[in-house]
Design brief:
Layout (H helix, E strand, L loop, with lengths): L1 H16 L5 H34 L4 E7 L1 E2 L3 E3 L5 E2 L1 H13 L2 E7 L1 H10 L4 E6 L2 H4 L2 E3 L4 E10 L16 E4 L3 H8 L6 E4 L2 H10 L4 E5 H11 L4 E18 L3 H17 L1 H10 L9 H113 L3 E2 L2 E2 H33 L8 E3 L1 H11 L1 H7 L2 E5 L7 E3 L1 H17 L7 E9 L4 E8 L6 H4 L19 H11 L3 E6 L4 E8 L8
Parallel strand pairs: 1-5, 1-6, 9-10, 9-11, 16-18
Antiparallel strand pairs: 2-3, 3-4, 6-12, 7-12, 8-11, 8-12, 13-14, 15-17, 18-19, 19-21, 20-21
Length: about 600
Amino acid sequence: MKHSRLRIISRIRTGTAQLLPDGQGRGRLLLVFFSLFVLSLFAAPFILLAAGTAAAAPTRTVVVGGDRDYPPYEFIDRSGQPAGYNVDLTRAIAEVMGMKVEFRLGNWSQMREALQSGRVDVLQGMSYSAERSGEVDFSVPHAVVNHAIFGRKDNPSVNTLEELKGKTVAVHRGGIMHDYLLRQGLGDRLTLTDTPADALRMVASGKVEYAVVAIVPGMYMIRELKLSNLVPVVRNVATQRYCYAVDKGNVELLSRFNEGLAILKKTGQYDAIHNKWLGVVDTTPIDWWTIVKYAAVVVVPLFLLLSGFALWSRTLHRQVALRTADLTREIAERRQVEEELRLNQQQLVQADKMAALGVLVSGVAHEINNPTGIILLEAPILKRFHTDATKILERYFEENGDFTCGGLPYSRMRQEVPKSLAKIQDAGKRIKRIVDDLKDFARQDTTSGNDVIDLNTAAQAAVRLVEPTIRKATRNFSVGYRKGLPRVRGSRQRIEQVLVNLILNACQALPDPERGIELVTWHDAFRDSVVLRLRDEGTGIAPEHLSRLTDPFFTTKQDQGGTGLGLSVSAGIVKEHGGTLEFQSDGSGTTVTLTLPAHHKEVDA
């Protein structure tokens, strides 16, 4: 049928060429038009069929390949869909060019094989190289990729790719840097990974020393995977053009992507896509000239302004410094005077309280002496009466048997009454002794401090004064008085005051009654002195406080009403007697050692 149509057209051309203006020509012309009409009727069904076939033919889908693990350029997102800069750019090109695309993202080396085998039509992100251009055709670049060397923060520093020789390096299999490092002779130390993320993980875990990865994906994955021990050691070791790639000779498809890319750049869509994915993580280094230029704009005017202000304020600063020094000195002197006044007031208050307490103790002791005297007077009379009455009671008991006396059987009372009378008499003597000690302790010291005293006697009197406090504080109080101690010269009343203070402090340091206190005395013949040592098993004293224990008003028991005067006064008394007062603490108790010089009678020559 094709040859029949050609013969008809040939005849039409021949007939048209032979038309003549005579009657015969007009007849032939009518014949030609009639032939064309018949031909059109004959060919119309075929033309309509061809048009319908063309309209019914579907548009071919372009299969676009890419790497599934190369964020933010291209990757599979959490919902399992293709995402990234390359994906958005390809969709935009397909929209402006009227193409239908299908994405297939997978292992990069497999995607390269899929392009060669025809399973995909185009790779949407492939770095250009001369070697690769022999296998595929590249579009115009749509991005520039900078590659970096990543390492751990504690790794030795390197500055170039050449310095990686002899070191273990991880690199993405089939990537542009894999090809590049092979050409550089580093293939024997390379560790190939399926994804750039795997290369970074190997460095972070210490399996290899370095990884060569594009800087933008590298920083993106460090942030997303929280690989906080990785840093870019060198930020730009190679710069590659990033293009679309088609199989060799597929010029028609490549031209469509080039045209679509040009349209996106003209309409501004390309910039929007680039800024969306690469604008935040773009790490293009800023050149030094730009830094200096912007720094000069800010720093130079600021420097001039600060210099002028410094020159203007220098004189004022000197004047203010002089005046400030004067005021500081005046304030320090005033504070010192106020502190001394406060200390003096506290000393006066405490002295007044102690004087009032002495008067009160003296009065109370005098009042107690009256009933105590009656007890001591009547107790012996009762004992003598009981002795005489016992003879009569015993005869009655022998004749009549046991009987009740004072609510108890006489057989028991005849043993208990003598004991009770003896206890009453002893208790009266003890009350009198304590009262006498209190009166002596509270009495104003009118002696010159030249008495010859026995330290053991003073210690026993002090213990009797604070015996109720000792019983309440501990169940383990022990004493050891060395016999035959040399005498000491001084004031017995003031030495007792020192010992009372020391014993009270020891009692207050005990956390529970199971802890003990030990008091011992002895003669140190080597130093010819009399020594009293008091040790408690209390909480101890902090090392930084030991040197301040005898400072006036220093106390660690302020919450318990301590004034900080007891040890200060005691240290002063001991010093007046020519002795020493030493404190030791090891964290499990405190030891106080009182040393006084021994006094020997003068022997006449």
